[in-house]
Structures are given as structure tokens and as C-alpha cells.
Design a protein that fits this description.
Distance between the termini: 44 Å
Helix content: 40-55%
Radius of gyration: 18 Å
Number of helices: 11
Order of helices and strands: EEHEHHEEHEEHHEHEHHHH
Strand order of the largest sheet: 1-2-3-4-6-9
Structural class: alpha/beta
Largest sheet: 6 strands, mixed
């Protein structure tokens, strides 16, 4: 397991998972997705674990996908559709994880750092939390069924604002739209408290309740696949190429020549 993912299997039936790459604001690379996938599999198989708690290290949740990894996908955009792609495998594993997932969000939550919250059960945001889905600014499109779930959750106008403009928004707006349960001064302490409360519930009834509640999401494999197809197409396009080049050159991208 990579050093950037830390999992503590606690005595209170809670597995606490920390995204720990603070030098990169906890941006997630392919090895980290593999590690997260391994934790999910272990936590699902371990009957002593009843709840998964996810958070980020040193004041940030995650800056989203590591752009160097996205650049590698651009060289072979079809690989993003591969069933062996660790990003996709993680997405599907979290979406299908049968036990409650509680998340604490501090600082930045970017891209998949926002869309994965749609597949968690309880989300608590710190006052410092700043959410953004700037896919469009990278010449990309939404992923993780967010193009379906966010309009359903927050309404089309708010979803269009978040995804077409790509602006950051705070915890109060996220709570008002239903993306997070609560904004609190200490999100991690609240998430731990709620995780421990869940872990004291009857475990089979808890899993059944989650399974029934998840019916409201509907079938997500189709939307996810369509998004990934569009995402793969965008990865090999000139707009992503310009956005990526601008990022590494530390300048604003110029999309004025594209149509």
C-alpha cells in the first residue's frame, strides 16, 4: 500500500482512511487509487468493520486527480475505459460499498474530491471547505455519474453553474444544495462521532437500510460509462492539451482558437 493512503482499523468497528499527500494537497495518483481500492475490499470483507470514515491530511480533503496521471491517460485515452483502470475500479467499488461511508471535508475538495461525495452516506464539511468541479477548465467533462446525480440533488441551474463555470463554492452553499449534511467547526471530530454512532447500530439492519436508500440513485453504470467515453475523447483533444500545458507552464490557458 502506498504511504499516501493510511488506514486505521479501529477497535470501535470504524476504519479511518486518510488521504495523506499534503505536499500535493492530497491529489490522488494511480497508486493511491489502487491503495484505496484495497482498503475498500478489506473493509468490506472484515465483519469487524461496520463503518468507513474518509478524510484528508493536514487541512485539505483532496485536490482531485493528479494531472501527471491524466497526462499519461492522454497518451492512451482508451485506457480510461479499461476495466483494469484503477480510477474506474475505485469508482465502482465505492459506489457499491455495502457499509456506511462517512466523510470529513476540510480545505480543498476538487474534481473527484467532490464527485466521490455523491457516493458517500454522511458528509461533514469544515468552515474551511472549498468545493470545485473545474472539469471544463481542463477541457474535460464531469465524471462519476455527477452529471446525473448533481442535477437531481441540487437542481439543474445550480449544477450548470457549478459545472459550466467551474467556480469554487463554500460549505454553506454545499449544505443548502444537499451535497453535505452539515458545516461544522471541527468536521473530523463530527465525522468520527457520527461514525461511532453508526457502528453501534445493528450492522445487518444498517447495511439493509443503505441498500434500500441507494435505490434512489437509480442505475449508475450507464451514466458513468457515457461520461467515461466523453472523458476519454476529451483527453485526446486539443483543449485538454492546452489546459495541461498551461498548468505546467503556470499560466492561464488560451481557448480562443478552438471552436
Amino acid at each position: 500500500m502506498t504511504d499516501y493512503i493510511e488506514a486505521s482499523f479501529l477497535k470501535n468497528h470504524v476504519c479511518e482512511v486518510v488521504i495523506n499527500r499534503p505536499a500535493k494537497k492530497n491529489a490522488i495518483n494511480l497508486a493511491m487509487y489502487e491503495a484505496l481500492l484495497a482498503v475498500l475490499k478489506q473493509a468490506e470483507a472484515d465483519n469487524d468493520i461496520r463503518v468507513l470514515l474518509l478524510c484528508g491530511a493536514e487541512g485539505n480533503f483532496t485536490a482531485g486527480n493528479d494531472l501527471a496521471d491524466l497526462a499519461s491517460f492522454a497518451a492512451d485515452p482508451g485506457s480510461i475505459l479499461s476495466p483494469n483502470n484503477p480510477v474506474v475500479r475505485f469508482m465502482r467499488a465505492l459506489d457499491r460499498f455495502p457499509k456506511p461511508v462517512v466523510t470529513a471535508v476540510e480545505g480543498v475538495a476538487v474534481g473527484i474530491g467532490v464527485t466521490l461525495l455523491l457516493h458517500c452516506d454522511l458528509v461533514y464539511a469544515a468552515n474551511s471547505a472549498r468545493f470545485s468541479m473545474p472539469f471544463i477548465d481542463l477541457g474535460l467533462c464531469p465524471e462519476y455519474a455527477s452529471s446525473v446525480l448533481i442535477p437531481r440533488l441540487a437542481g439543474y441551474p445550480k449544477a450548470a453553474e457549478w459545472m459550466m463555470l467551474g467556480d469554487a463554492f463554500g460549505g454553506a452553499e454545499a449544505q443548502s444544495a444537499g451535497l453535505v449534511n452539515r458545516v461544522c467547526s471541527d468536521a473530523l471530530a463530527t465525522a468520527r462521532q457520527q461514525s461511532e454512532r453508526l457502528a453501534q447500530k445493528p450492522p445487518a439492519a444498517l447495511r439493509a437500510t443503505k441498500r434500500l436508500l441507494r435505490q434512489s440513485h437509480g442505475e449508475l453504470d450507464g451514466p458513468m460509462q457515457r461520461e467515461l467515453t466523453e472523458f476519454g475523447t476529451a483527453l485526446k483533444g486539443p483543449e485538454f492539451g492546452e489546459a495541461l500545458k498551461a498548468f505546467f507552464e503556470k499560466r492561464s490557458p488560451d481557448f480562443s482558437e478552438f471552436s
